[in-house]
Amino acid sequence: MSTAEPTIVTRPLRADAIRNRAKVLEAARAAFAEHGAEAQMEDVARRAGVGVGTVYRHFPTKQALAEALIEERFDRTIAFVRDLLDEEPDPWRAIERCFEYCAATQERDRAWAAVLALMAGGTGVMGPREHQMRQLLALEEQMIGRARAAGVVRQDLTATDMPALFCALASVVQAGGRNWRRYLDLLLDGLRPQG
Amino acid sequence: MSTAEPTIVTRPLRADAIRNRAKVLEAARAAFAEHGAEAQMEDVARRAGVGVGTVYRHFPTKQALAEALIEERFDRTIAFVRDLLDEEPDPWRAIERCFEYCAATQERDRAWAAVLALMAGGTGVMGPREHQMRQLLALEEQMIGRARAAGVVRQDLTATDMPALFCALASVVQAGGRNWRRYLDLLLDGLRPQG
DNA sequence: ACCTGAACACCGTTCAAGT
DNA sequence: ACCTGAACACCGTTCAAGT
């Protein structure tokens, strides 16, 4: 039972540092959701009511700050898919709802959409999130397995197809705003059993 | 017979200005293909063997320079699709080759992929290329029309579906490097007549 | 131990001086 | 009329001084 990251021994943070860290994350959520990758560190600091130096004390680079937010999103997505496997009896509908959830969250969070639009490669952006990525893929493997067993998706569909599909959907959502539904319909039809 | 842009009366350029403009474009092609949107103006100037000021004299902003390159790509793509309509007798194969051409060019040109990955919205990035976009869509309308008539694509497919599909493909190519083929297969199957 | 914000670095853009 | 490159602006990042 080990995570991918090396274990770093850290003393507990001082009370004010804990508060500041939370304020920075809260401010960053708003700034990145609104402006995507163009969000500015100075703006994050202002929204949080701290100096820029404090932002950098908690997160060494803008990239690192963005990744902390991405990590939260990943966890929520993993939780959502896990619930879906429990609650949704229709195996096809589960897949559909999974994509719809992704599109809907991306619509409200430009940073999340931008990251997903670049993740399919596995290289670069996704390196640090590899552990979560594996968790998510394992859940999707189950989801797809059920659908295959029920004969509602093409037999050659696997979880390894999913990153590219989420990547594709993300860029459509990011670019097109609210009319991603039609694209999603075409995408989903490509996953159906093929004549 | 009018283009979208207002007519601007320009005296002919001086001979050295013509040469410099060409050198800048040439240098920009290399720089943007290699680095995408992160290409640097200083680097373009250096590759062209001119001062930065000269780059700015011919193209008012980095964005404008990038757009000039995009315009070239658009023209080549339009020419390619036009030829395809003449040369490719199989209506399904024409659609397939159109997507393959897009993916292949995007693989060699990061800037082109980046722009396409953001174009589906019609807003923003595509504004200045609206005229070319319309030309391209008109050709795709023909391409899809033939395919519909031959019954090899779903009857509800239209040219207006294409921008989102190219956008999606672009982000997969941009992110995933060389394994876009599988994604394209799923995409194409979504365009087939649906049972 | 943590915070602050002025200072530094980098890159897009401008403009005074040159041909 | 066009070219050049030093100077300016903006934003990510650092660090000396403060509590």
Can you describe this structure?
Two copies of one chain form a homodimer. Helices cover 69% and strands 0% of the residues of chain A. Chain A is built from nine helices and no strands. The longest helix of chain A has 26 residues, at 62-87. The first copy, chain A, is elongated and about 60 Å long. Chains A and B meet through helix 8 and helix 9 of A and helix 8 and helix 9 of B. Chain A binds a DNA duplex (19 and 19 nucleotides) through helix 1 and helix 3.
Short synopsis of the structure:
Two copies of one chain form a homodimer. The first copy, chain A, has 195 residues and is mostly helical.
What topology does this entry show?
2 copies of one chain form a homodimer.
Chain A: H1 15-35, H2 41-48, H3 52-58, H4 62-87, H5 91-108, H6 110-116, H7 130-150, H8 162-176, H9 181-191
Helix pairs in contact in A: 1-2, 1-4, 4-5, 4-7, 5-6, 5-7, 5-8, 6-8
Chain A binds a DNA duplex (19 and 19 nucleotides) through helix 1 and helix 3.
How much strand of chain A?
under 5%
The N- to C-terminal Cα distance of chain A equals: 44 Å
| SS field, number of helical segments of chain A | 9
Low-confidence stretches of chain A: 1-6, 120-124
If interface size is counted as residues with C-beta under 8 Å from the partner's C-beta, which chains form the largest one?
A-B, 35 and 35 residues
User: Got a strand count of chain A?
Assistant: 0
The percent of residues in helical segments of chain A reads: 55-70%
N-to-C SSE string of chain A, H for helix and E for strand: HHHHHHHHH
Structural class by helix and strand composition of chain A: mainly alpha
What is the residue-averaged pLDDT of chain A? 89
> What is the radius of gyration of chain A?
19 Å
Summarize the main sheet of chain A.
Answer: none
Oligomer: homodimer
Overall shape of chain A: it is elongated
